[in-house]
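$ run holo --ligand "adenosine-5'-diphosphate" --emit tokens
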Amino acid sequence: MPGDGWPLRIAAAGSLARVTAIGECMVEMAPRDGGGYALGFAGDTFNTAWYLQRLAGERLEIGYLSAVGQDDISDRMLAFMRAAGIRTADVARIEGRSVGLYLVSLRDGERTFSYWRDSSAARLLAHDLGPLQGRGAGDLVYLSGISLAILPPEDRPRLRAAVAEARAAGALVAFDPNIRPRLWESAESLRDETSAMAAGSDILLPSFDDEATIFGDADPEATCARYAALGAGLCVVKNGAGEIVAAAPDGAALRHPVTPVDRVVDTTAAGDSFNAGFLAGLAAGLSVRDSIAAGCRVSAKVVQGRGALVELPPGLVAAVG
Ligand code: ADP
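-- output --
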């Protein structure tokens, strides 16, 4: 891959061994066909860690950095993470707090979400950033705009600084702005924090509709150009069923169609699973183009299943990992 026009730091992804994803995992209550609710666990960066483990778990050690409570449901969440093969040593246990929860409602086939996360333990995840020091974070740090949005404002620069330190120590930084205006106290802090984190990232994985709404980008190329001007590295813009657009600051660029899907069942975690497929591709030493193709194949499968965490067929896993 070196020499194909993409940043050299990206070529180093082929030798990744250890990944740290940062953010919040929540309890999910999803309606069951026969009535009642099924209890699950999900959350954007956690979903990506879960898919990454499925796709590249043999090659990569994947850890989650977060915080949970000391109650029973927090124990169950940790057990779920471990059973999925995700390292939980960097999940802090905070007394007097618990995990966040969201409930899925179905109306006329459309899913809507209600959240209870205002006082979740994960909001305090930046209180102990020791695990990111030195080479503690491993070779790749993955976080999203939601990982930042949930923090008290004064903790965001601390998390950014800790990620920058990990990067200086050799880790690649991958960031999905995952813009959720409702989680931020103002549009201004959303824009400022997203831009500041993007400026310190090697790999950016935005979704075009969010970026257009908040930053006014005319097209995905404009999203890449805006982030490149800030100093960000490789930018890969998702756009629903539209083409993926990728560009690097030095001018390398490509477009890639998404994998066609007969029937979209549920787009939950489409972007999160794309990110996992893409990063798993890079970690397997694939080119940027082939890694995008991997992200498309994985997310096409995920939008045809229900819920955030969809089991992937072994053939797909083998093709990426
Ligand atoms: P997000 O979940 O972040 O909003 P997108 O909706 O842009 O992300 O979708 C992420 C990826 O999921 C797309 O780049 C594409 O690969 C896949 N995807 C989403 N919707 C479809 C679709 N209708 N058909 C095929 N692939 C899709």
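-- notes --
The first strand starts at residue 18 and ends at 22.
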